[in-house]
Amino acid sequence: MTNQSDGMTSANVDWDARAASFDEEPDHGLSDPAVRRAWAGRLRGWLPGRAGDVLDLGCGTGSLSLLASEQGHRVTGVDLSPAMVTLAREKLAGRDAVFLVGDAAAPPVGEQRFDAVLVRHVLWALPDPARALRHWCGLLRPGGRLVLVEGVWGSTDPVGIPADRLVGLLTPIAGQVRVERLSGDPLLWGKEVTDERYAVVAPARASGQELGEASAAGA
Question: From the CB of residue 157, how many other CB atoms can be counted at a distance below 10 Å?
Fold first, then answer.
């Protein structure tokens, strides 16, 4: 999938057009208190225990950014869709949060580094997941961690990235990779699900500088 600057993708998904109704999905808007508590609990276990800087890539309307902010973290969100970014800015108005329009695979954050890079349902759609992972690891401070929420959706024509493939991509660049299965928790999705949904939490093995240089070199 090739990201473009107008909120579209090569798959012709117009995220700007979907922004207004995006939060209607239970796991997007987190308007149901039970769903919200479920995500907040998971996020508390994935993100660093102490307040830090969190980069939320493909942040959408900022629902996970808001939970991270409520847990004391400083948040930078990046999304391809200007309309999504506008809604995220409104949702987190007055909080220690910044939202930028940009490509999740190469976020426009300059030399800033983070204690956690949080990415939900984005990696599977990128044209070069391995390269994106290397770049994201390069954005981590020493001791930082990747938090990736992914899955495989649909039975007739499934899309997504299986957990074993993602673990294989992370093994050369990450420390101990932890996989947390999410399919069995209907509160996260507002319904029962039978497909593969999971989270991966992984500390970067090499330093951010080393991984950033490898990514820039296309290694």
Answer: 6
**Alpha-carbon distance values, 173 to 49, 60, 137, 210 (Å):** 23, 27, 8, 10
Q: Where are the alpha helices (DSSP H) in the chain?
A: 15-22, 26-29, 33-46, 63-70, 82-91, 129-137, 163-170, 186-189, 208-216
Reduced to 3 states (helix: H, G, I; strand: E, B; else coil), residue 159 is: strand
Q: What angle do CA 125, 131, 133 make, to 5 degrees?
A: 75
CB atoms within 10 A of CB 130: 15
Total length of the chain: 219
**pLDDT (tens digit per residue) in 52-106:** 999 999 999 999 999 999 999 999 999 999 999 999 999 999 999 999 999 999 9
Residues whose CB is less than 8 angstroms from the CB of residue 143 and which lie 6 or more positions away in sequence, other chains included:
115, 203
**pTM > 0.85: yes or no:** yes
* H-type alpha helices, 47-185: 63-70, 82-91, 129-137, 163-170
What is the Cα–Cα distance from 208 to 126, expressed in whole angstroms? 21
Mention every residue, 6+ apart, whose C-beta is less than 8 A from residue 30. 23, 36, 39, 63, 67
SS3 169: helix
Contact 145, 176 (CB under 8 A): no
